[in-house]
Every structure is written in C-alpha cells, then in structure tokens.
C-alpha cells in the first residue's frame, strides 16, 4: 500500500498551487481529480524510469486521498501489482502529473467543471 506520508514532483506541486489560485480548489482535491482523470485515460506509469518526488508539500495519505483512499489504493494495486511503498507512491504521483496537464490552465471553477 501507499506510505503514510506522501509528496509529489515539485513542478506538479506548483501546478496544483496555480490551479488553487485560479479555482479555489485545494491541491489535495485537485490531485484526486487529476489522478482519476489519468486512470480513465489508460495512462501507465513506467517504473523503470526514475521519477522524482522532490516537492515540499508532504502530507499524510488521508489528506491527499480523503474518502478516495481505498479506491485509489485498490486501483493502483490492480494496475501495478508488483509495486509497493515508495514505488507505488511514484506511480500515484505520476498519474497526478499526467492528469493535471488537462486541468492546470483552467481560469475558474466553472471552466473546470465544464471540461469534465
């Protein structure tokens, strides 16, 4: 399962903060939206590529995932049964990065909602 403390890539973190400034949606909620958009798109994390988790925003997994924690971990384990701990966290972070690319340029919350 995922570690209790998790972080993202610094670039993704900045994109989440920018999205919060534009829409008011907190980084943890927008990370959840980005993760599920990425899963729906059939994106696959490549574990053999070194993925940096160098962001400064380290939160516990319940804060990052909220009520989606169980389904997020189950989806990750189904898609990546060979991964554990930090590798699984990197997969989650990679999915957030992939999913945020479609969300990061929205200027307000109604624009974001209408794009779904």
UniProtKB/TrEMBL annotation:
This is DNA sulfur modification protein DndE. It comes from Paraglaciecola chathamensis. InterPro entries: DNA_S_DndE (IPR014969), DndE_sf (IPR038472). It comes from the Bacteria.
């Amino acid at each position: 399962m995922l570690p209790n403390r998790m972080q993202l890539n610094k670039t993704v973190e900045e994109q989440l903060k920018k999205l919060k400034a534009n829409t008011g949606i907190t980084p943890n909620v927008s990370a959840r939206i980005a993760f599920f958009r990425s899963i729906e798109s059939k994106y696959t994390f490549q574990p053999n590529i070194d993925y940096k988790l160098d962001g400064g925003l380290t939160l516990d997994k319940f804060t990052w995932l909220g009520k989606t924690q169980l389904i997020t971990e189950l989806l990750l384990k189904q898609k990546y049964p060979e991964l554990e701990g930090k590798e699984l966290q990197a997969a989650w972070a990679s999915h957030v990065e992939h999913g945020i690319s479609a969300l990061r340029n929205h200027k307000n919350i109604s624009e974001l909602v209408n794009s779904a």
